[in-house]
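Complex record, two chains
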Amino acid sequence: MRIALFVTCLVDGLFPQVGQATVRLLERLGHEVTFPGAQTCCGQMHTNTGYLRGALPLVRRYADVFEDCELVVVPSGSCTGSVRHQHAMVARRFGDEALARRAEAVAARTYELSELLVDVLGVEDVGAYYPHRVTYHPTCHSLRLLRAGDRPLRLLRKVAGIDLVELPDAEVCCGFGGTFAIKNGAVSTAMLADKMRSVLATGAEMCTAGDSSCLMHIGGGLSRLNAGTATVHLAEILAATQDSP
Amino acid sequence: MSTFLGMPYAPRGVGHLRGEQPFPVAARAALADTQLRRNLGRATTTIRAKRAAVVAELPDWEELRAAGEAIKRHTLAHLDRYLEQLEDQVTARGGTVHWARDANEANRIVTGLVRGTGATEVVKVKSIVTDEIGLNEALAGAGITAHETDLAELIVQLGHDRPSHILVPAIHLGRAEIREIFLREMGDVDPGLTDAPAALAEAARLHLRRRFLSARVGISGANFAVAETGTLCVVESEGNGRMCLTLPGTLITVMGIEKVIPSWRDLEVFLQLLPRSSTGERMNPYTSMWTGVTPGDGPQRFHLVLLDNGRTAALADPAGRQALHCIRCSACLNVCPVYERTGGHAYGSVYPGPIGAVLSPQLTGVADNASLPYASSLCGACYDACPVRIDIPSLLVHLRARHVEEAARARRVPSAEAVAMAAASWVMASPARYAAAQRAGRAGRALGRGGRIRRLPPPLSAWTAARDAPAPPAQTFREWWRRERGDTDGTAG
């Protein structure tokens, strides 16, 4: 299949290895990946901070760039959630019903990575090899906006060599929340402390998730403590093989 | 864009809908209180588990939630009609209905009614709405003492404290603290009182019994009011409410106008949703219902005060009005990771937690509670738990947008944040500008060591206060793609 990658601004600018892993994984599974170069950002930061007018041109850009694509994959539950649950709302707030309809149509073809693999491509064993002790954090927007359920875990369980351990209180937010981490830094940090406590209790080397934003938060905390546990995006685990770890 | 009809908000200077400090400041103090953190962590964990167990028992829970939402939406769409029907029915059955535009009017009405009886003391059923309007203070100003009779409300009142939870107002206190409050404030208490829960409950029971038997006026809120018959309904756990609602000769009920429901059939839905969501019980121990006045049985004078206090202003906002669906179960507080760590006082309003963060700003106007819509990571746990399916995360975003729009209108010079957001939007609206900004951002690599940045300038210093930040990579994804795959469709850069 021909799949367009919406890499997200965060992955593009700060975590290019996650985008590269997504490309490597989908190509290994026999699909063609395109990268429409005019893409930028889904506008979630603007929307969730209350700057809906600032999000409007980004909503329009997303529709312009991706509306001719048959399938769009996003290595982020949160950005997929924004495309699916906020784009049409933003357009309607400014009375642009035509854009809202276009946004809904393209959102219906936009999938978070684990949704694409399990629901659209019908694959759970992607042939990955990752010989590490790993715990999985289901990010809030994957869990409660997308209802991604256990799709990421089904993919992880099929990874060869992995020692997958359950994360206690997995469904509790890590405290990132976009600009919440800045505006309410103290509360955000208190939530992070509990999440790190859970992660460290598993004895995992790696904490994985489907969102680089939450991983940047958890990983930033673990790194500050030199805790000996790091973070890795789901796409990177699924892309790893015996030949190309 | 939404239009607002200019309905009045809850007035300043009366009641408890506004905090003294913005949420992030109040939260910092709460986070440092180790006793509070432990109490809240234990209490919310216990109640979350209880709720989850009893909700899982009902195969039609999602249908019940949808029914609850539909009834509330219908009622609010025809609120004028149902309120007048309620008034007609209460009046026809011997009660008197009063309409209060705001807290001041409601306090004046209730104070006048109590004065008219000649009583100088009243007993109160647990009621958040009377706390919202600051009724106890208004009564005190008129020389009338209000006695709280709900155990937790009594503890809070004796401790000269404020409630911190909708259902469990003293959730922030441990039993040792409660014992100290009783010994200090109760007067008639046994000085050998221990902090065993049964001993504390017995002390409160003895203390309250005298109040119940001598009270001539009872004051309550209401969980529901059935328009078709004019029946009021209060649900509770302790039985103190039943005493207040039946023993005194005069009963005064203060009720927010959004509490009306059309019919008895609708109660069937809410009496299943409410106890399971709030206390995690299949059914609450006491459900009291009364319809006007019954000669020779119960209060012989019944007054119903219908309160607006900003509710019509909330109703005027098509997106915001669903906050009025709330049945005050507090399930959203118990599942909220922010509430669990800060407690209720940090929100500054009688309505704390996620529902408070969307209700309080609508009752007072967003400007008076501007920090509350941001007091959430938008994790969505509240929406999943809400028995009437209030989409709190979307409401929070909506109120943030209202705040930004109102602030932009009120200021001549835009805030630094507004400027940064406008700049970011301008940059990201163009792939060329975006790629240029990425190249400029690479200067940030100089800050990094071993791929991590330990200190960033404000406002990002709030991030690096506790977390490392990743240093920008040598090449962005789009640069890598172009290098590996060649230009695709016009990636200018």
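Note: The domain at 133-239 of chain A is CATH 3.40.50 (Rossmann fold).
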